[in-house]
Amino acid sequence: xxxxxxxxxxxxxxxxxxxxxxxxxxxxxxxxxxxxxxxxxxxxxxxxxxxxxxxxxxxxxxxxxxxxxxxxxxxxxxxxxxxxxxxxxxxxxxxxxxxxxxxxxxxxxxxxxxxxxxxxxxxxxxxxxxxxxxxxxxxxxxxxxxxxxxxxxxxxxxxxxxxxxxxxxxxxxxxxxxxxxxxxxxxxxxxxxxxxxxxxxxxxxxxxxxxxxxxxxxxxxxxxxxxxxxxxxxxxxxxxxxxxxxxxxxxxxxxxxxxxxxxxxxxxxxxxxxxxxxxxxxxxxxxxxxxxxxxxxxxxxxxxxxxxxxxxxxxxxxxxxxxxxxxxxxxxxxxxxxxxxxxxxxx
Length: 347
What we know:
Belongs to the Nth/MutY family. Helices cover 43% and strands 12% of the residues.
């Protein structure tokens, strides 16, 4: 079909030089696809290179401990991806003897692998004609064909999957999938695309109807929850500090943080001091308490906005399970805490 031919020709002339495009190794493709979920290519590429250096095979990743994996992942966010990645590597190494499933349906059985990732691996590694359907594909196809289906609806993925499958050259699905994703990432971008230089500017329905900025349709609005975190950055007489592991389900599972007081709103000195004296560090007398940042750091997650304040707590004596600042930096932290540690001195 003409659409596919024009798209693939554009791709061959404009594609980025990305490391995972130089291989059909399912391990490397799987790694890149998991990393690029919810992550821009520019941000994900250094992580891909770090992971493939540290863990060149699925056996190497399987043999690592979880904290090593989380430490390397630090800053990419959506940490359940890293935990699932590690568990799936262990499953493939031990149960499948290092061999990835070689078809779409079996790939879907892997932990952390959804329809999009399974389609990418199946087409890029095994040339199986399965279309990838992600935000880029929704955007390109909805604009080109003027599809007004709400992409947040239950039927949308099935509809766009069928349309992409019809357009896909069955003898070379990999290049079509790469091309349509790249076109959405570089040319048919979400806001203010440069339609004047687009190869489809004479045939795109949205452009002809002046609807480019209205498509794709997404009606569902995400509810954002505000949370208020007060981190206690302790320093005892030996300048040791203390951290804890987040073991509860939810954000940052199995990452580390400073002792936390979560409140219903922004709280001041008196409230935090009272909480510390009643609930924290009972073996040590508090010498002083001070705000490190008087204005909350707003850390935005997809469904939560965290309002974060760090408090310096000086204690008398030596704190139990205290660690030095050098040891502190070896643990995996959420990026907002990692950045704080890097910036602050004398922690």
